[in-house]
Request: fold
Amino acid sequence: MSSRRRTTVAFVAAALSALVALTSTVAAQSPNRELIDGLEYQLLYAALPLTLFVLMILIYAAVKFHDNDDPQPTTEDPALEITWTAATAIILLFVGLSGYSVLVNPYISPSQAIDTDDRSQEGFDSFQDLPDTGDEEVHVRGYQWEWQATYPDANVTTENQIVIPAGEDVTFWLTSDDVIHSLFIPDLGVKQDAFPGDYTRARTVVDEPGRYDVVCAEFCGAGHSRMQGEIVVVDAETYDQWLSENEGTVAEAPNPD
Reply:
């Protein structure tokens, strides 16, 4: 086997290995992450063959016509023009429908509460006016530069820790005390902005107990990089017991193990 052929084979093998690594992921821990990952792979599988097809045409044209000393204008070909126009329309339709099917999912775009100007600067009193979602609810307030969570059923508060039960639908109601913050949980595929004076909603369900990093994804001042926290997911029994034991207090999150 020639040196050039060995190089080509090695390059193809490396490319295939990279593709396998790219498309191999651990099981998603929430429907949010599962939906987002699924959309990304759908678009990847559609884009990859198209990219290779275009590259093959470019390589073919470069090799075939690189020494053409008498180039001629391209002749009109209505059938070819109709074909690539129709193909482009089909691809765009596929992308649009794939994206829309994810965006309308209730975990990705839950119904939002209407904006209100009646916000208490002293605590979470104004959260009480928000509609009942039927989920386990956590009220989250962002401020420079921490997250504070309150659990209305037991009036428990945590700092930079948000405790939720595993296997149950959870709604986070978010607001901000000062500037725009953004609650971002990468492992769960949850991201929602928190605005001063307004209330926004994020929704998820987490399958397994554990700890998941939380960061602020909106530049919010000099301490932005320090605005970190965690989602602590525990089983439902531990969650209920933790709420009852810490009612009316500022508490530490229970151990998910």
Remarks:
- The helical segments are 3-23, 31-65, 78-103, 236-245.
- Residues 31-65 form the longest helix (35 residues).
